[in-house]
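Support request from a user on the community tier.

User writes: "When I paste my C-alpha cells into the form, the page sometimes reloads and wipes my input. The last time it worked, I copied everything first. Here is what I submitted, just in case something in the input itself triggers the reload:"
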C-alpha cells in the first residue's frame, strides 16, 4: 500500500486496514525503542557527569593541602638543590588542581547545580579586569595587551562572565607569539553587546572552528602549547547559561577573534538563581 502511494498508483479500493494497523504497530515499536535508547543515553551521561563531579570534589581538598604544604616547605629555608626538586612538584600539583577545579565547574554547569544570576551592568570593567588578570602572562611573553572601552552595558553574571572572558583572553595570549597583540573591545549588536577578544596568533582552520568548543578539544595549533582543552568549553557553557553565545572568526595566518555575545537586557524567563560554589 505504501509503495503504491509513493508511486502515485494508490486508489481507495487498495485501502487495507490490517496493513495500516501493522504499519502503526511497527512505527510504535520504533518510537518506543528510540525513546528507550534516548533515556539510556541520558542516564549514562548523568552517571558520567556525577562520577566526574564526585571524583573532582573528593580530590579537591587533598590537592589543595598538597599545594599548601609545598608552599610551606618552600618557605622553610631550603637549599637551591632542594628548591629545584620542589618546583616540578608544585607545577604538576598546580596543573592537577586547575584541572579538578574546571572539571567541577563544568559538571555543575551541565547538571544545573551551578546556575547564573545575570544583572544589568557596564561592560568596560569586565574588559579591564580580564586584561589585568592576563597582564603578567602577556608581559612575560612579550605580547601587547590593549583594551578599547566603549561605555556599553549588558545583562550578565559578573563573576562567571569574568571567568568566561578570562578563558578567552588566556587562550589569546597563549597562542599569540612574542611581539604579537591581543585586543579586548566591545560594541553593541542589535539585542546583544558583543565583546571581542582579537589576537594575532596562528589562526584556526575553518574545519576545526566548531570542534574547539568541545570538552577537552584542542586544535592543531595547540601542539606544543600547554593546555587542557576545557577553557573554551566552559566559556561557551557560561555564555549559553545566561542567554548569550560565542562565535569565532579566524583563518590560518590571520589571527582569531572570539566574540562573546551578552544580552543587553534580561530575558523574560531570566536565569535568576543564586550562585553555586566553585
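"...and here is what came back when it finally went through:"
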Amino acid at each position: 500500500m505504501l509503495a503504491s502511494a509513493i508511486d502515485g498508483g494508490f486508489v481507495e479500493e487498495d485501502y487495507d486496514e490490517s496493513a495500516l494497523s501493522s504499519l502503526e504497530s511497527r512505527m510504535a515499536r520504533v518510537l518506543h525503542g528510540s525513546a528507550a535508547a534516548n533515556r539510556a543515553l541520558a542516564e549514562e551521561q548523568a552517571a558520567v557527569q556525577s562520577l566526574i563531579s564526585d571524583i573532582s570534589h573528593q580530590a579537591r581538598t587533598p590537592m589543595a593541602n598538597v599545594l599548601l604544604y609545598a608552599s610551606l616547605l618552600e618557605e622553610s629555608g631550603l637549599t637551591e638543590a632542594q628548591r629545584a626538586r620542589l618546583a616540578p612538584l608544585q607545577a604538576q600539583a598546580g596543573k592537577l588542581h586547575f584541572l579538578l577545579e574546571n572539571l567541577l565547574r563544568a559538571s555543575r554547569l551541565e547538571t544545573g547545580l551551578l546556575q547564573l544570576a545575570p544583572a544589568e551592568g557596564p561592560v568596560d570593567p569586565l574588559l579591564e579586569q580580564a586584561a589585568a588578570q592576563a597582564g603578567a602572562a602577556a608581559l612575560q611573553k612579550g605580547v601587547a595587551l590593549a583594551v578599547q572601552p566603549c561605555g556599553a552595558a549588558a545583562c550578565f553574571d559578573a563573576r562567571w562572565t569574568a571567568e568566561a572572558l578570562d578563558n578567552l583572553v588566556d587562550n589569546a595570549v597563549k597562542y599569540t607569539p612574542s611581539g604579537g597583540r591581543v585586543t579586548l573591545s566591545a560594541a553593541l549588536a542589535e539585542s546583544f553587546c558583543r565583546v571581542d577578544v582579537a589576537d594575532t596568533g596562528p589562526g584556526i582552520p575553518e574545519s576545526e572552528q566548531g570542534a574547539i568548543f568541545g570538552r577537552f578539544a584542542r586544535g592543531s595549533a595547540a601542539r606544543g602549547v600547554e593546555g587542557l582543552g576545557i577553557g573554551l568549553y566552559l566559556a561557551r557553557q557560561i555564555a549559553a547559561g545566561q542567554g548569550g553565545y560565542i562565535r569565532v572568526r579566524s583563518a590560518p595566518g590571520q589571527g582569531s577573534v572570539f566574540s562573546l555575545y551578552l544580552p543587553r537586557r534580561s530575558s523574560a524567563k531570566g536565569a535568576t538563581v543564586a550562585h553555586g560554589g566553585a
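Agent notes: The reload is a front-end session timeout and is unrelated to the input. The chain has a mean pLDDT of 81. The chain has two domains: 1-113, 119-263. Escalated to web team.
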